[in-house]
Amino acid sequence: SQQGEEDPQALSIQEGENATMNCSYKTSINNLQWYRQNSGRGLVHLILIRSNEREKHSGRLRVTLDTSKKSSSLLITASRAADTASYFCATGDSSYKLIFGSGTRLLVRP
Amino acid sequence: NAGVMQNPRHLVRRRGQEARLRCSPMKGHSHVYWYRQLPEEGLKFMVYLQKENIIDESGMPKERFSAEFPKEGPSILRIQQVVRGDSAAYFCASSPPGQGGVGEQYFGPGTRLTVT
Hints:
The structure holds 2 protein chains of 2 kinds.
Chain A: E1 5-7, E2 10-14, E3 19-24, E4 31-37, E5 43-50, E6 55-58, E7 61-66, E8 71-76, E9 85-92, E10 98-100, E11 104-109
Parallel strand pairs in A: 2-11
Antiparallel strand pairs in A: 1-3, 3-8, 4-5, 4-9, 6-7, 7-8, 9-10, 9-11
Chain B: E1 5-7, E2 10-13, E3 19-24, E4 31-37, E5 43-50, E6 53-56, E7 65-68, E8 75-79, E9 88-95, E10 106-107, E11 111-115
Parallel strand pairs in B: 2-11
Antiparallel strand pairs in B: 1-3, 3-8, 4-5, 4-9, 5-6, 7-8, 9-10, 9-11
């Protein structure tokens, strides 16, 4: 069954605006990761946040994790047209599997 | 430093034929994972392999699907007697030894299988 569920399913914003995507999951995790997928392409790893971390930054990306609510958010600041892609959260437990959500499709209008 | 390589990138098969998908992990990586992605959906775990060992194949259909990661050469995902429902993108990922998947996985570009 699906572990991570992203919200919203689709998001359309103007270039320069911020984009926020949310991910909820069901079971305990070791880490939570965010990936980007451009249309018809493979996945690019964006950021990994461990279960004992609450916030992490990487360039224009900010990820938060609330293990009490079993949720995470990805914030992309000052969005660019090149950020247009699908964004997936994936949870990892103490094993090796990554369980992916169904993704948020982000469109950044120039 | 080449990333994860998959070939072919696109594969068309008629119903009943066999599909062979190849994955070469990143240099130094000994863990390989296969995922399947249906249109407009996230990736679903299929199988996890280390060299010459299948560690977990719980996500792989029990019939028609098999995977291997030999001592030499790429990992192979084999689908026998393909059906239209097998049409999907198949992604391979790898990770270094000792990490076992609790960290980042590095994904290949995928193979898009179309069954006609």
